[in-house]
Amino acid sequence: MEHIIKGIHHITAIAGSANRNHDFYTRILGLRMVKKTVNFDDPKTYHLYYGDEKGTPGCILTFFPWGEISAGRRGARQATAIGYSVPEASFNFWMRRFEANGVTYFKTAEKFGEPYLTVFDPDGLKLELIASKTLDNRIPWETEQVKAVNATKGFHNVTITTNHIEPTDAILTGVFGYRLLEQQDNLFRFATYADNNAGIVDLIASAGEKAGHVSGGSVHHIAFRVENEEILMQYRDKITALGLHITDKIDRNYFYSLYFREPGGVLFELATENPGFLVDEPVDGLGTHLMLPPQYEKYRAELETSLPELI
Ligand code: ZN
Question: How far apart are CA 223 and CA 255, in angstroms?
Answer without folding.
Answer: 11
